[in-house]
Structure formats: C-alpha cells, structure tokens
Write a structure and sequence with these properties.
The complex is a heterodimer of chains A (about 425) and B (about 325).
Chain A (H helix, E strand, L loop, with lengths): L3 E4 L2 E2 L13 E4 L2 E5 L10 E4 L4 E4 L1 E6 L12 H10 L2 E6 L10 H14 L3 E4 L1 E2 L12 H7 L4 E2 L8 H13 L4 E4 L3 H4 L4 E2 L2 H6 L3 E2 L2 H17 L3 E4 L4 H12 L4 E6 L26 H13 L4 E3 L24 H13 L5 H16 L14 E11 L18 E11 L2 E5 H8 L1
Parallel strand pairs in A: 1-5, 2-6, 7-8, 8-9, 10-11, 11-12, 12-15, 13-14, 15-16, 16-17
Antiparallel strand pairs in A: 1-3, 3-4, 6-18, 18-19, 19-20
Helix pairs in contact in A: 1-2, 2-3, 4-7, 7-8, 8-9
Chain B lengths: L21 H19 L12 E6 L5 H12 L3 E6 L7 H12 L6 E6 L4 H6 L7 E7 L5 H15 L6 E5 L6 H12 L4 E5 L15 E3 L2 H4 L5 E4 L5 H4 L6 H8 L3 H4 L7 E3 L12 H4 L6 H29 L1
Parallel strand pairs in B: 1-2, 1-3, 3-4, 5-6, 5-8, 6-7, 8-9
Chain lengths: ~425, ~325
C-alpha cells in the first residue's frame, strides 16, 4: 500500500491533540502512521503538498439518498460517491429507502459492491428497521449487520405501531446496532408540504405543526427510557424538539440527534415564493427554530450535521410546490456551508469538524474522525482561501436541485483521502478539464 | 416571488391580490365600472381584445367561473378556447407538466388557469413565454383574486367607500382561496376592520398575521358589521375530523336571520357560491332582501373584463410602439 507524506498543512483535529499546528502527516497501511515526524524507516512513495491548506479528518455524512437501486433516473451510487469525494466526504450512510428497500443482505451487498467499483467515498448502507419499511415485521438484523449495516433506520417512514417500534428497538439493541428514527409523526405530517405558520396561512399550503416533531420525539424518548437502547433522532427541525433532546440527554438517556445543513441557513420565509427547491421534509421552520438549531449545534445537543442529500431529476421540482418532490441535493454544499458557519463565528474549525466528522463517526461506532496515529487516514485537505460560486457547472452531484445555487463560498476541497487512498483531487480534476 | 406587475407598475399577470397597491386595486374597480355599461347595452361587445386568443385552462371543474371568464373574454371580442384537463389524483402533477411543455407551442395571449394545487398559477406564469399573460382563476387554497375583486366591486356598489366598513368572513377560512384573496383585497383597499369567524379547526395557524381579527363566536363576530361574507363548506370536512356534523356547524356558524340581526340593519350578505342551503346559510337569508349573491355573479363579468383588458394593455402599448 502506498506510503504518503502530506506536508506543510495546518492540522485541524476535532480530537484536540493536533489542533492548529502546521505539521506533516505520514500515512502507511491506510492509517495515520506519524504526525510531525516520520516513523522509523518510513519511505515516502508519494508527496501531497498541503502548504497553506487545512488538513482535516474526512467528513462523515449520516444521511444520503443515493437513489440506487430503484431511482437511477435521479442519480446513481457512482455519481453520488464521486460527488461526495469531491465534497470532502469520506464515509456516508445511505438511507434504506431504496427500491427494493434495503431490508435484506442481498440489497446491502448490491450497494456495497457498486460503491466499491466506484472507489470513491465509502458507502455504508443502513438497514431497514422493519421489512419493506412498512412498520409491521422485523428485518433479519443480525444478517444485515453481518452484511455490513452499521445502523438501522426507519428511512423517513415512521413506524406507526408503537408496540412494533418498541420490539424493533429491543431487537436492534440485542444485535448492538443504533437505531435512527425520523423525528416526525406520520399522521401530523400527512398531506403537509411546509411549516405550519403565517407563511403557510398566506400561501394556502397545508402546514406541518411543530407538534409533528415533538410528539414523535416524546414517543421515542419514552421508549428509550424504558429500554435504555440507543436512539438517534434524525433531522431535527424545531426549537421545541431541540429542547426535548437536551433535557433527555441531561437526564442521562442514550439519545443523539442530527440536523440537516440546510436547516441552519433557511427558514419558512424561503418558501414564500412557492420555491419548490425549498420543499423539504421535515419542513423549514421559523427564524427562532433555526436559531435554536444553530445553538444546539454549538452546545452539542446536536452531535452531527448531515447533508440529507436527496438528488432529483429536473422534472421532480417542475411542478406546483405541493406536487414537487421534497429534498435538496446537499453533497456539494455540505462543507462550504459548514465553513460558512465557522466564518459566521458559530463554531470553531475543530468544533465544526466535531459535528461533521467525529460526532457522526462516534454515533456509528467508527474509529475515524480524528487525526491520531493508528486512526484511518481519512482526510479532507481544504484550501481555506479559495473563493467560488456554486453553479450548475460546478455541481458534482447528478441532482441540481439546490437552493444554494449562486451562493458565494470561501474554502474548497483540494484532496480527499479514504484509508490513505486519494479519492478526489482538485488538481487532477482541473487537469482533466483543461 | 414571480412578479405579476410590469416594471412600470401595470398589471402583467393577475395571480393574487396580495401586495397590490391600492391605486391599482381601485383602477380595476373603476375599469369594471366603465364596462358595466357595456353589459347593459343590447350589443354587449367592445373590440379591446380583437385578434387576441384567451385559453381557459381548467384543471378543476367549474361552471360559473369558467363561464363568466368566457363571457368576459367574448365581450372584449377575444377568441376563446376552453381546455378542461381531466385530472385523476395520480396524474395531477404530471398532466400539468405535460401541459406546460405544450404551452409554449400554443400561440396565445392569455391563460386563465384553475388548478387544485396552491401556487399552480405562479408556477405556470413563471414558465410561459414572456408575451403570454396568466390570470389565476383559483389555485388550491391559495388565491382566487378575480372572485375577490368582484366581491370588492359588489361591496363598493352597495356601500361606497370601504374605509369605514366592518367586514366579517364566516366559515372555512383554512381551505378557502376566496377568503385569502378577500382579506388581502380588503386590507389593500383600506377596509376599516376585517374579521374572520370560524371554529379553530377551520382557521389557519397565525391567521391574525394576515391582518384580521379572529372570532370563534358568531354572535360577537357579526356584531355591527356592514358586510357578511359566508363561505361554502365542503362535505369532506366532516371526514377529516374538522367538524362533527353539518347540523352543528349550521347551528354555530350558519347565517340565519337570528345571527344576521346582530349585524347592522343595512348589512349585505355575500357568498362566492355555490350555496349549500341549510349548511352555511339559511334559504330565507340567501334569498332575502339583504342578499347580494346573484349580483356577485353578474358583477363577475365586468370585473373579469377589466382585469383581462388591463393585463393586455401594456402589451398592446408595447406592440404599437415597435
């Protein structure tokens, strides 16, 4: 395996040990073998110049829809794994809401095989919590785990029957897998397309109340309290939801939560012109909700920020708001928006990486997300001064459905490494382009 | 938001009454006034839209609205084409997209659009060729601006200036595109007070932010009002657990003689139609001396003539200039 010498970069480590210092990294056997000085007898096969750059752990994204199998008119594992690598993401958890649903080892193996062929970002399938995500029968959790699933998920289709949910949580805990639950009640969400508030009152769109989130969290917390199993609440959207998670964690419950990056930048106001690019589930809520989510990211109530990547073909958004398909193509904007959170002073660089790398890695029990000797050499090397605009031609994802087109960003990925292997290089890309 | 105005402030499309300047709203009413003379003549035509093609694009069935639009266009001497797109629940979004692909190919001047989805008219207006005008004839629960303007016209004819008036809108505000457009139009025209009267289940959350006072008790809500507008109650509201029964709704919110007696003695009663007698209004009131429901229908023609001609005015001036 190639031995790499990454020299001259500033190390940004959410673990804190190597924070801020300019130091060389030495990589061998897919792991970080030395920091600052080469291990004895190290022979470099390849140099990577990181002068003037930030050297960070690769990002871990807890929520992506890769559209394969079953939705290849929208995107493919190949196209999205490349886009993720270009965005500094080294590992990502794929939603089980595929077609067929990821509820058997065969589908898990199909996905991992396709991802391996691409040789880009590591795709980690999550298994369906119930068969067909129908909320009735358990999946073969042990077999899914053996096939490579790191977590189980309801795939955005909450289990309606609370007894089934309780048993599914218990069974998952038996197999020692974390469970990711949607933080919304299916009935209170049905037929809605945005946040219930004064914008929905104006537009005549059916709104989803904050209670859609809090009733679901309350149910999940009650079950977590009962069983002690680890529940991860996906895609928080409201101040009251955040408050419930904070209280539960303070009381010692084993619960974690994430938020989609777009929730930290957009609100219901962005829907006010019927902008279907801002049609997301759960919906963009009020200004106070956005501020509470930002605060929760800062104080650690929310441990992970994800892209909630949902690429679509153009026609999916070419419809009146209600009829358009929800979701934002988020891989290309995840890191740029995260760097903007740093620019805005919400998070320090190491704290930002804690939410985007170490935090999500810990939730899945992965050892990456730190710059320490012996850890996987998953790296994202960023030029912090590069200024650029998100434009259709700069998008790597197959899905162009993003409301962030036209935004100006500072900071851009130069190289991405997974297990010591270069999976993206901006230099190589521009050489191809010229 | 897709702008419905030309750079000079004149009407380009007519999608919503929200945000329209008072002068423009008044100009629509004044123009309608001038057309009402035409309707009373034996030859009911003016040549303003001669050579223009208007397409009524209805994705939702409607008899009255489509007919009055058709009459309005014909009295302006336009050629009119009616397209009724049969929509099943499954093909709704798809058929609009398909239709959209064909819109560009049709050499027409104006689309009059009705669709079951809120925002459909905005969506179409932002995708048609630049020279095509779009008039919203009702989109989901969002807006029905020509209905609201004919209601304003009817109120002004009976009451004159809107500034001193108290107006109560009673019924299913939550699902009503008519109510939303009326609220914006009334506030835009400076009406003294706009009230909404409904049970909590039929009111949108934060509705006060639209500029209305909220009442749940009809006896308080109708007290001393000059105008009572009641809305149609759809039968499916019972299935959605929004109301227990038509009977209870009629007892609590139906416009009967007893409730109406709380309003000013000269108050007028309006309804956008079609009326459910014995559900939202008692027959004795609907057909009574204070009812102006049939005049609303008649006024619809002049108001729609005004809006159609105003939308094409700027275009005509531009074409003449080049």
């Amino acid at each position: 395996m190639t031995r790499l010498h990454v020299h001259g970069g500033q190390l940004i480590d959410p673990g804190g040990a190597a924070a801020g210092q300019v130091a060389d990294l030495f990589i061998a056997g897919g792991e970080i073998a030395g920091i600052g000085q080469a291990p004895d007898g190290f022979q470099t096969d390849r140099h990577i110049d990181a002068g003037g750059c930030l050297v960070c752990p690769g990002l871990v994204d807890l929520a992506v829809h890769l559209r394969e199998p079953g939705g290849d008119h929208k995107a493919s594992i190949d196209s999205e794994a490349r886009a993720a690598a270009a965005g500094g993401i080294t590992r990502m958890l794929a939603s089980p809401a595929t077609d067929p649903v990821t509820d058997t080892p065969a589908v898990v193996e199909l996905i991992t095989r396709r991802a391996r062929q691409t040789q880009c970002t590591r795709v980690m399938p999550s298994g369906a919590l119930t068969r067909g995500l129908e909320g009735e029968l358990l999946t073969e959790v042990a077999a899914l785990k053996a096939a490579g699933c790191l977590a189980l998920s309801d795939g955005g289709r909450p289990v309606h029957n609370t007894l089934v949910l309780r048993r599914a949580l218990d069974y998952a805990a038996t197999c020692d897998l974390p469970v990711i639950l949607s933080a919304f009640d299916a009935d209170l969400m049905a037929g809605t397309s945005m946040h219930e508030g004064w914008v929905s009152a104006r537009l005549g769109l059916t709104g989803s109340p904050v209670a859609a989130e809090t009733t679901a969290i309350a149910r999940g917390l009650a079950l977590a309290e009962d069983s002690g199993s680890h529940i991860h609440f996906a895609r928080l959207s409201s101040a009251r939801g955040v408050q419930m998670i904070a209280r539960a964690r303070a009381a010692g419950l084993n619960v974690t939560a994430d938020v989609a990056m777009h929730q930290l930048f957009l609100t219901e106001m962005d829907v006010s012109g019927f902008n279907s690019l801002c049609h997301v589930v759960p919906p963009l809520r009020g200004h106070a909700d956005r501020e509470a989510l930002r605060q929760a990211v800062r104080d650690g109530t929310i441990q992970a920020i994800c892209s909630d990547h949902q690429p679509h073909e153009a026609d999916a958004k070419l419809a009146p708001f209600v009829a358009s398909e929800p979701g934002i193509s988020g891989l290309d904007s995840l890191l740029p928006l995260a760097l903007r959170l740093v620019d805005e002073g919400l998070l320090s660089l190491p704290d930002m990486l804690t939410r985007l790398s170490r935090g999500p890695a810990d939730i899945l029990g992965l050892s990456c997300g730190r710059l320490e000797i012996g850890r996987p050499a998953d790296l994202c090397i960023i030029d912090p001064d590069a200024t650029w605009w998100l434009r259709p031609e700069t998008l790597h994802s197959h899905g162009e459905n993003t409301p962030f087109l036209g935004w100006e960003f500072t900071g851009r990925v130069r190289h991405t490494l997974l297990g010591g292997r270069l999976i993206h290089s901006a230099e190589r890309e521009s050489a191809h382009a010229s | 938001m897709m702008s419905q105005l030309n750079p000079d402030g004149s009407l380009r499309h007519f999608l919503t009454t929200e945000g329209l300047p008072r002068a423009l709203l008044e100009r629509i009413l004044d123009t309608a006034e001038s057309f009402s003379g035409v309707i009373d003549k034996s030859v009911k035509k003016v040549p303003l839209l001669r050579g223009r093609t208007v397409i009524n694009l209805f994705f939702e069935s409607s008899t009255r609205t489509r007919t009055t639009f058709e009459l309005a266009a014909k009295r302006l001497s336009a050629d009119v084409l009616n397209i009724n797109v049969a929509t099943s629940a499954t093909s709704k979004g798809e058929s609009l997209l398909d239709m959209l692909r064909n819109l560009e190919a049709m050499q027409c001047d104006m689309f009059v659009v009705r669709h079951a989805d809120s925002g459909a008219a905005h969506f179409i207006a932002s995708h048609v060729a630049p020279e095509v005008r779009v008039i919203n004839a009702g989109d989901g629960s969002h807006a029905h601006p020509t209905q609201a303007m004919l209601d304003m016209y009817t109120i002004r004819r009976h009451k004159g200036d809107l500034e001193p008036l108290r107006v109560a809108i009673v019924g299913d505000i939550l699902h009503s595109r008519v109510a939303r457009s009326q609220i914006h139009a009334l506030n835009g025209l400076g009406a003294g007070e706009v009230r909404v009267v409904a049970p909590r289940t039929l009111l949108p959350r934060d509705v006060e932010n639209l500029g209305v006072h909220v009442y749940h008790d009809i006896r308080q809500g109708l007290r001393d009002v000059d105008v009572v507008i009641t809305l149609r109650l759809q039968k499916e509201r019972m299935r959605g657990a929004l109301l227990p029964s038509e009977q209870e709704y009629f007892r609590l919110y139906g416009i009967n003689r007893e409730h109406l007696a709380l309003a000013k003695p000269d108050a007028i009663v309006m309804h956008p139609g079609p009326v459910n007698r014995g559900v939202e209004i008692e027959s004795a009131v609907a057909d009574g001396p204070q009812s102006v429901i049939l005049q609303q229908v008649t006024n619809g023609i002049a108001v729609r003539m005004a809006i159609m001609s105003m939308c094409l005015e700027h275009k005509a001036a531009t074409e003449a200039g080049t």
